[in-house]
Amino acid sequence: MRSVVATRRQFLAAGGIALAGAALTRTAASALLTPSSPNGGTAAPVSSSTPKATPTATPIATPTPTATPTPAPTPATVTIPVPVIQQSMVLDCETAALQQGLAYYGLNVSQSQLFAEEYADVRLPVMGANHTVLRWGNPYTNFVGYVNGSDWTPTGFGVYWPVILRLARNHGLPNAIGGEGFAPSRIYGELAAGHPVQVWIQTRFARVQLGTWTAWDGTQVRYSFAEHSVTLSGVSPTQVRVNDVLNASQYWVSKALFEANFADFNNMAVIFQ
């Protein structure tokens, strides 16, 4: 991963030597029996009545070399120097993550100014059995709840990608892209190209039960009481780097853990460019 093979090779080699010896003996005997010419030379051989066929060499097929596939290059680790910023209000992670993305491009806008443009809907939710939310505001259009409230009670929640994208474009990034359904490979490609990406996950990448409420306008909202938003600032072959505004920390998580959390909120992201 040969004794039998070695034995067979030795046997064939010994046989070859014997055959060669036999052939040599026959050649010597033929030379001794060849009649001499009257002039002392060797007599011309007598032609046989039936000519012997000249053996035709059998061509040996040349093996075609098998192409060895070139392995795909391992993508290099890329880090983006995105400033690490801490959220200034209890539930304002989305605004702080946006501030990080803007700051990377030299656009300095305060969290308070950005939050004011999210037009918070502070109406309280309608709760159902087992601590579920039945009706509440629409985070696709406004910040939902009190920004310094509690997401478990709940008196406050957060905001989703359309509001963050609008603010990014209004404050200097007209080419920013946002939405849901982004493939993880697209996110990694944007990071490799030097574009920070804001994503929606669960706090500290926990796995908390998800639910759905109906907004006042009828929109279906997927939610978790651990909803959180961070800015990705790097990628390696196996991990992504996180700028976490919860306590202004920066760390790496596995792509598998990231992708599971990313899927919890329908692969929601805003790409800063």
Q: What's this, in brief?
A:
The chain has 6 helices and 11 strands.
- Low-pLDDT parts are 1-68, 70-74
- The helical percent reads 25-40%
Distance between the termini: 54 Å
Beta-strand percent range: 15-25%
Radius of gyration: 40 Å
Secondary-structure element pattern, one letter each: HEHHEEHEHEEEEEEHE
**Major sheet size, sense and barrel closure:** 7 strands, antiparallel
Overall shape: globular
Structural class: alpha+beta
DSSP, total strands: 11
Roughly what is the average pLDDT, rounded to an integer?
Answer: 82
Helix tally equals 6
Walk me through the structure.
With 273 residues, this protein is an alpha+beta fold. Helix content is 28%, strand content 18%. The strands form 2 sheets. Strands 1, 4, 5, 8, 9, 10 and 11 form a 7-stranded antiparallel sheet that branches. The chain has a 4-stranded mixed sheet with strand order 2-3-6-7, with no helix packed on it. Strand 8 (227-235) and strand 9 (239-244) form a beta hairpin.
